[in-house]
Specification:
heterodimer, A: 251 residues, alpha/beta, Rossmann fold, 2 domains, five-stranded parallel beta sheet, globular, B: alpha/beta, 12 helices, 39% helix, 19% strand
């Protein structure tokens, strides 16, 4: 939920990608490096007409490939992910080829804040700045939580803009649920001349659902069908859901 | 012609080819000046290099990446497996200073499990040329093959004259014989060739086969050796586990062929760091030492 507004904004307003140009070498690329966000991506791709919504009913079935991490048999998924810290370098490779060919397209890599623990993110950040790829944009889902705990209680990440700036990137920090702020920042890409850009999107986990919002213990729950129906009502402002399913400690 | 000259020629013929390196420029030192726009040095960042290569391959490129074999196949292992192996992208992984070629660098630099690791990744092929001549002969075929490849880079002068045209999955039989079949690859082909001549002089009939690609592997060459020679000897600068000896065992077991096999490899340990000839001597991989080990094995008689 934390990143879905960013995904909606990017696909509906900013990225030059749609159901018709998925193989066009001049399309924009979106790479979901925090692959566990794929439920949000499935939803947005279905809403955008890129993924057949009927396939969502195949979630976790062996007859399709709609599972817990992104893969390329899902239209709109440019590259598989799941192992954190990979797609900034893959995105850098795509951005480099676009530069070599003089193309107009841009590459957006969506990173988790917990994912920034991975050294390979910083290795790729160092190389991307050195290669002057001003068509590469990282967006960090700064929801301040990782799998089990708050990021700042485990491996503090702040000051994040200063870290990326020190690595040679241009940066912007904004409310990741504010479309106007996203439009303003992304309208100024590159944020630093001839350098990659990072947008730190401050977000709220479970945004729009007060009974889940910002609660680490409700990040991974196997909600019942009844609870899901209640949560959908909560999202639409009918009433707060009463949740009884226990959180799963899976990571 | 050497590797760099051949690569430069292929680069000019095919716009899809790009050269990457994690600041390992020795085998390609002349390319930045000749073809700077297709030469990408990412610095000492093996993981990023592999991710970048995957991204380039998604855009239709054929990246040829260079790094020391130990850091390429081990530090960047998960990137190779995940970003190159899973999608089967045509990335060519050139590992330098593999096996005994790391000489006096010590165990940090000794790539002795690189073949085991790379062949274990679905879709990734493995090629271990015997010398500069075979590397140059096979390079175009391997670069045009849509599969990812791990290549054990070598710049040694020709160990033998290679007359068999290069093809993945086809070993080269360098001499025929029925007492002993020596199966080898890469650097040690030269020592094995010399050993086969020494054994021949002593009246033994020796079959010598250099495997070329270990994946795909020439199964018939292995089975043929088992059927025609009384003893198979596998010789490799690799750990015994996971390399050619393991491959031979897998093939013979699956094909139901019984054979006597002497593995000459590094058995669960790193080698003594020194200059190459001293390593070969210390570790028992000179032609003379190989001969002695093979004769000692033969002296133990046949088993049933």
């Amino acid at each position: 939920m934390s990143f879905v507004d960013v995904l909606v904004y990017l696909y509906s307003a900013w990225l030059r990608v749609d159901a018709e140009n998925l193989r066009d070498p001049r399309r924009d690329y979106l790479l979901l490096s925090k692959g566990h966000d794929v439920p949000a991506l499935y939803g947005v791709l279905a809403e955008m007409g890129i993924l057949d919504p009927a396939r969502l009913a195949n979630h976790l079935k062996t007859t399709d490939d709609i599972y817990w991490h992104p893969n390329r048999s899902v239209p709109g998924v440019e590259f598989h992910s799941g192992s954190l810290g990979h797609l900034l370098s893959v995105g850098l490779g795509i951005a480099l080829d676009i530069k070599l060919k003089g193309g107009p397209n841009r590459v957006v890599v969506l990173l988790g804040d917990g994912e920034l623990n991975e050294g390979s993110v910083w290795e790729a950040a160092l190389v991307a700045a050195a290669k002057h790829v001003d068509n590469l944009i990282a967006v960090v889902d700064r929801n301040a939580f990782q799998a089990n705990v708050a990021t700042e209680d485990l491996i503090p990440l702040e000051p994040l803009e200063a870290k990326f700036e020190a690595f040679g990137w241009g940066s912007s920090r904004l409310d990741g649920h504010d479309f106007v702020a996203l439009e303003k920042a992304l309208g100024q890409i590159p944020l630093r001349t001839a350098r990659p850009s990072v947008v730190i999107a401050d977000t709220v986990r479970g945004k729009g659902l007060p009974s889940i919002e910002a609660r680490a213990d409700r990040w991974f729950c196997d909600f019942s069908g009844h609870e899901i129906a209640l949560l959908l009502q909560e999202l639409e402002g009918v009433r707060q859901a009463e949740l009884n399913s226990a959180p799963l400690m899976v990571r | 012609m050497n590797y760099e000259e051949k690569l430069y020629r292929l680069l000019r013929e095919d716009e899809r080819l790009l050269v990457l390196t994690a600041e390992n420029r020795a085998p390609i030192r002349g390319l930045p000046a000749k073809i700077p726009e297709r030469f990408i040095d990412v610095g000492i960042c093996e993981q990023t290099m592999i991710g970048v290569a995957a991204g380039l391959a998604l855009r239709g490129r054929i990246p040829i990446v260079h790094a020391l074999a130990s850091f390429l196949t081990m530090r960047a292992f998960e990137f190779i497996r995940t970003d190159v192996g899973i999608p089967a992208l045509p990335v060519k992984l050139v590992g330098g200073f593999s096996g005994f070629l790391s000489e006096a660098n010590g165990p940090t630099h000794q790539a002795l499990e690189d073949i085991a690791l790379m062949r274990g990744i679905p879709n990734v092929n493995v090629w271990c040329p015997a010398d500069r001549q075979e590397l140059v002969q096979g390079l175009q075929t391997v670069l045009r093959d849509p599969a990812p490849y791990y290549i054990r880079y070598i710049d040694s002068p020709p160990a033998v004259g290679h007359r068999t045209p290069f093809a993945p999955g086809r070993a080269e039989v360098l001499c025929q014989g029925t007492d002993v079949a020596i199966l080898c690859y890469g650097l040690l082909t030269a020592q094995c060739y010399e050993a086969s001549r020494l054994l021949g002089r002593e009246g033994l009939s020796v079959r010598l086969v250099t495997m070329r690609t270990l994946k795909p592997v020439d199964e018939d060459a292995i089975v043929g050796a088992a059927e025609q020679a009384g003893l198979i000897v596998s010789v490799e600068d690799h750990f015994k586990a996971g390399g050619l000896y393991s491959i031979i065992a897998e093939v013979l077991l699956r094909r139901g062929v019984k054979a006597r096999v002497l593995p000459i490899a590094l058995d669960g340990r790193w080698f003594k760091p020194a200059l190459l000839n001293d390593v070969l001597g210390y570790e028992g991989f000179t032609a003379e030492a190989l001969c002695a080990r093979i004769k000692a094995e033969l002296a133990q008689g046949h088993f049933d």
